[in-house]
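Hi P.,

Sorry for the delay on this. The queue was packed all week, but I finally got your sequence through. Input first:
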Amino acid sequence: MKKIVIASLAAGSLLSLVQAADVTTAMLKNAATSTDSVLSFGIGSEGQRYSPLAQVNTKNVAKLVPAWSFSFGGEKQRGQESQPLIYKGKMFVTASYSRIFAIDLKTGAKLWKYEHRLPDGIMPCCDVVNRGAALYGNLVIFGTLDAQLVALDQDTGKIVWKEKVDDYAAGYSMTAAPLIADGVLLTGVSGGEFGVVGRVEARNPLTGELLWTRPTVEGHMGHRYDKDGKEFDNGVTGTVNKSWPGDLWKTGGASTWMGGTYDAKTGLAYFGTGNPAPWNSHLRPGDNLYSSSTVALDVKTGQIKWAYQNTPNDSWDFDGANEFVTFDMDGKRYGGKADRNGFFYVIDANNGKLQNAFPFVKKITWASGIDLKTGRPNFIAANRPGDPTKGEEGKKGTTVFSAPAFLGAKNQMPMAYSQQTGLFYVPANEWGMDIWNEPISYKKGGAFLGAGFTIRPLFDDYIGALRAVDPKTGKIVWEAKNTAPLWGGVMTTAGGLVFYGTPEGFLKALDAKSGKELWKFQTGSGVVAPPVTWQDGDTQYVAVVSGWGGAVPLWGGEVAKKVNFLEQGGSVWVFKLSSK
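Then the structure:
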């Protein structure tokens, strides 16, 4: 057994079996400034994806060359959206179909692999992806497509604990990287298209024991758990039926499928919530709290401290699950969020008060803007899909053209914030959709949409655009257009660089101030994952996972046909500066 250290929490005292060489709460608190490791999704728990490393910079990035590449192998390709973690000479990287690898950093050799045994009945809505893991103690922890959490020994890959989160047959799954916040393991759930109920769970990361749960659909009871696992009520989320009429709140969606961020300065964890279920908004008049929102949670108690709803009574599957990235501006702590609905929000991270909101894409049809006094969108009523009960024979509502499309102005691909430039770097997409509502009723494990759609591009020359956004003014400082939609994340560094990938297979480096392309490398398959960087000895490395997939080829309509030439894959590439 390992040395016991006691960490006291409001939910009870957790016994932490942590040795000196293990990942600690203190290390994770300072992960964003660490240069020899990448300890969490987002590079730091705040999600800025900013590295203080500058050995690779605007003057020499053109000399980046491959150091090694590792293939995930087998026939299990599909989308590879994972962000690697780096610690103690190892890379921990998840892959499609709930796999995880430990790789030797110096040689690229496989140290071990864990392949989760998945049942036949899994129902992931948007590909068999996994976005990453969490490190704590000597464990690496990740979620699976059949809604389980698995904790493995970092050295051997052996299972230390495994916990079922929910019933995959009801549509629950897990695709996000877990979050460690002040010594607590926080996770969300996927499955909003199947009428699940979104929630955040807190666990002891060393044992998997539940501490508390917080539903993200108004009307559901939260719970806390004692050291023996006994359940106690912890207050209802919101007020029953206040913003959800009838019984639809019981299958209300709002899944927390992208995971969360945590800011030690505010002591709050921030989770985005997905679309309300079903998509047909005429069945659920009201705001439908807390769907399509950002929810700020007290890590110790599981109580909601504040919430901001980006799209009340969402009718377009705009979701609100995108990451909330905290940063300093004018002496205050704010959070930035590039929402799927096309607006970029700047919100006080302490109290949820809206500071600013502005478009980061060129065409938005569902609202004319965001009222900065009330925080509510100015809806354009004619651009909400029609009520099918008032349509022809009650089978289909009026079709409208909506922009952005439901895949969003920005989807799962995380943006980055540079402490050097004060800009956010947002991977945006310009597309729209024809959308209509249809009658629907809930059936366990069945798709719960009540809508039909066809996605199509808005412009002939591009769909994706990496945009540098000023959170203070709302100005787009520069943009780099891309023919295919962008679906991979972004990283920025103190070397004045912005790294991002494209579905065409390139990892690119741009000048963070001007947007000028300085370097690119063809990885052999589409990049739909976020890059990372670290330094080993006197050498800085950059890594990214390559493997085309995700929601676009599955749900993309005309856009999917436009990019059907892209090849699948599954590998991780590592780069360093050439010595020549």
